Amino acid sequence: MNKLLYILVPVIVLMGCSKENLELSNPNRITNESFWKTEEDLHSAFAATYGLLKNVDGGYWGVRGIELSNGRGDDFFIRNDVSYLYQLSTFTNTPDNAAASNLWNVSYRAIFRANQILENVDNVTSLSEESRKQYIAEAKFLRGLNYFLLAINFGDAPIHLQVPQTTEDYFMAKNTEAEVWAQVIKDFGEAAADLPVEQPSQWKGRATKGAALGFLGKAYVYTKDWANAETTLQQLTTAPFQYMLMPDYEHNFLATTENNAESLFEVQLSDVGGTNPWAGENANESLGVTTAQEFAPAEVAGWFEVSPTDKLFNEFQKEKTTSNDFDPRMYATLIWDYPGATFYKKPFSDFELQFGFKSMFKKYQNYMQENELAGSSGAANYTSDNNERALRYADVLLLLAEALTMQQKVNEAYPFVNQIRTRADLAPLAAGKNQDQMMAEIRHQRMLEFAREGQRFYDLKRWGLLQQEISNSDKVGKQFFTPGKHDLFPIPQSELNANPMMVQNPKW
Question: Which of 16, 95, 217, 287 gives 493 a disulfide partner, CB atoms 3.0 to 4.6 angstroms apart?
Fold first, then answer.
């Protein structure tokens, strides 16, 4: 399996020796002066930056990040085992919530590393001009991606575009959310200009032009710049790009079908490295994640931390396929009591549903094994190497349909929505829908298409439907949701304590 492995490198020491000190160099210590000499140094720096995307505590596509991005949705429940996760899921979190604080800190750590690359790439004098431009574009993609995560989760946030030189440089006031989005759009736009359409096979997982355009189009949708969203996303539907929906929806979530034609960007995972998935950034860290083990039921050595709500279960059943069956996305996403249902080679009747809901998550689970004790590759440390798909072509199609619909180009949105419906064996949409009707269809399809993929809460937020849909659900804790407060996470208390220029988000 070819995939980029996020091999960790030591943190670069930023303090050099003064001339008054003995001019001796420690061969075991990497410094800013001894690093940034070769292309291999750049590869190490990028690996350390990409690796933060799956960081166990604060990486958005690591185990806690998956729980954070899904946990507030009306389709998702987190049980009261890890208290700070239950609190964010039930809207009882406070500014010291560890999940949100770690996302903030890890995002800025990744931004710091991307800025390091941008400031030092010219020191690698052996690079061709084309390679130099691609490395700069790749670093800007990673910086833009982390500012994207800060924008959707915190709103206002400080914008760091240089490596701080003194302690005081770390302390900045928040930029407005609009300014953060402007930086996101600038970084993705500049990244798209110089990234390759496709990476060589040995670098599967590194950013491409399509990934940058996809996230740029998504940023335009989030900022309701419909015309630019249309222009940007439309590019991904034609040459030189060759993205397509996988004929089998479930192939987007299996370890055996990673990096496929539907994937624009996915976070690469592997059952290699150390033996401890919770070790942090050191030699003991596994490069897989424990998400599947956390989500699995107790009967197969799981921690049964989460559950889909019955609102999601019922949404899947609103429309049958052309063969009068359940939506194939329902079979790929959930496991429930239907004839012949098996999970981890056991009949569904062997499992006890813990939370009063009717189903469990199947998507991304290693359910074709007998349990989650050995992850997806036989490693005896609970880790899975099933990549998290961060951006799929299905998302591009539905975002493009939304951008067209919001410009009153409803007829032009039909082909993109119908691609999603056809893959799900649903009948083509009836002609003559108006803007409101088409948006209702797009909202319905996004709920089904991206369940467990960290989209639902953020979709509801940008549609202005958080209060309505959370209230109209069976989500535990819905009574604690406060509009205008829980739309965003609070600025972490640790940041407020350390940074005298920082102020809290409204209502917190």
Answer: 95
Consecutive H or E run containing 467: helix 466-471
Chain centre to alpha carbon of residue 16? 36
HSE-CB at 484 with a 13 A cutoff on CA atoms is 2
pLDDT tens track for 59-75: 999 999 999 999 999 99
Residue 276's SS3 state is: strand
Distance (Å, rounded) from C-alpha 100 to C-alpha 118? 27
Residue type at position 176: T
**pLDDT single digits (tens) 224-281:** 999 999 999 999 999 999 999 999 999 999 999 999 999 999 999 987 778 788 888 8
Q: Which secondary structure element, helix H or strand E, spans residue 307, and what is its range?
A: strand 306-308
DSSP run (H or E) holding 77: strand 76-78
Q: Torsion-angle region of residue 342: left (phi > 0), alpha (psi -120 to 50) or beta? A: beta
Distance from C-alpha of 258 to C-alpha of 387, rounded to nearest angstrom: 7
| CA nearest neighbour of 89 among 79, 98, 100 | 79
The Cα 303–Cα 305 span in angstroms is 5
| Rounded Cα–Cα distance for residues 255 and 236 (Å) | 25
Token readout for 497 is: 């304590």
